[in-house]
Amino acid sequence: MVLSGPVARYAERVHGLVGGGHHVASPLGAWLLLALVAPAAAGAARAEMEEALGTDAARAADTARALLSAPHPLVASASALWERSAAEGLAGWRATLPESTATGPLPDQPALDAWAREHTLGLIERFPLTVSPETVLILATALATRVSWVDPFQVASGDALGRGAWAGRVRHALRTPWHGHRCWIAGTGRAGDVAVHAAPVRSETVDGREAGMLVVSVAAEPGVPAADVLAAAYEVAGEAAASLPGGPTGRRSLYDLPLGDTALWTLREEPTRTYGGREERFSAVLPCWSAESRHDLTDPAFGFGAAARALGELMGMPALRYEAAQAATARYGRYGFEAAAVTAFAAATGLPPEGVARIAELRFGHPYAVVAVTTDTRDGLPAGPWHGLPVYSAWVAEPSELPEADLADPPTAF
After folding, report:
1. Which of left, alpha, beta for 276 (phi over 0: left; psi -120 to 50: alpha)?
2. Are residues 284 and 195 in contact, defined by beta-carbon separation less than 8 angstroms?
3. How far apart are CA 377 and CA 49, in angstroms?
4. pTM for the structure as a whole
5. Is the CB of residue 142 less than 8 Å from the CB of residue 118?
6. Is 177 exposed, middle or buried (0-12, 13-18, 19+ CB in 10 A)?
């Protein structure tokens, strides 16, 4: 399954609902979490989840299992399912989770925070949800990346960013090195002509395969809505990573554009010696940036409401309440890029109603009987003639005083 399309559509939901403010998110992290729950759904809940996922539930779940079972060398990933008590109704769904998914009893908040730190290279300090007495299960995914550019940026004056909204905001900016980075102008359907910069990171070779990453930046004219720029960026990044013959679709020739200044570039001509009579050169100036965000994913458009209904039906708890959230962080600098996200889904039921407990303290204050019986079992079943055999018995009619030696606490065991 080619996942880029469904994730790009899901990303448009995520960023659209988050809004146009400064933020970072991992739509993939949320998509994976929803895909893991999808096999539990049926009927209307399944249809709602498939609409959010952009594909059928079985295919989404298979894809999520494949991604989490064999992570990309540059993207650490993890998933976990914790339950207050293992519900029998979830056994079939539980078996569909990746073998790499950690399972166990519901941990306390410090343990959840520690899991987030461990599986995000320390980038996420706190788990995005709070465990409570009503929480019956938590399902989580984590993604993390810390990479270095093949060729680090040069340092430029902040003035090189131009006279736009960030004029005078920073003293220093990043300028592309002489080689190694890719820059171009692309024509897009959603955002018009955009400026594109792609920085490759140091790759890793595993079993003869080279695993790499491109971090692609896309800028449109200031008036273009953020949703359209993000959609264009997903499209351009996918094409850039695919290494299409002849370059990405929609790449504009500099000779088709007017000379002069715009909000996105300055285009000039200068004499040079070159075979063919003309050539095109690019450079780019970008700011360093970082972001930390927490996103509430309870809006029905994210699909987790349907996920809660599906699990609730399996558990016999149709009124199951839920929370879904993501914590994300990223930093883009001269020498590299790091990012991480933890996405969590928690299902909760109401506390049991208040009632009355009767507590008995039994007293053996008059004559009573004692019988000593041997046991002999294997796997919980009787295994020999000694099982259940009464060996000693007594009638206790005279109590004894506790010996002085037994009044002190026992010595500490080694």
Report:
1. left
2. yes
3. 49
4. 0.83
5. no
6. middle
Integer Cα distance of 250 and 233 in angstroms: 13
Residue 302 main-chain phi, psi, to 5 deg: -75, -20
CB of 349 closer than 8 Å to CB of 321: yes
Q: Is 16 exposed, middle or buried (0-12, 13-18, 19+ CB in 10 A)?
A: middle
Give the Cα separation of 46 and 24 in Å (integer): 29
Q: Using CB atoms within 10 Å of the CB of residue 350, give its burial: 0 to 12 exposed, 13 to 18 middle, 19+ buried.
A: exposed
* 175 contacts 154 by C-beta, under 8 angstroms: yes
Average pLDDT, the chain: 86
Give the model confidence (pLDDT) of 121-138 as tens digits.
999 999 999 999 899 999
The domains located in the chain, with CATH, are: 4-146+290-348 (3.30.497.10), 182-283 (no CATH), 368-406 (no CATH)
Measuring CA to CA, which residue among 106, 99, 3 is closest to residue 55? 3
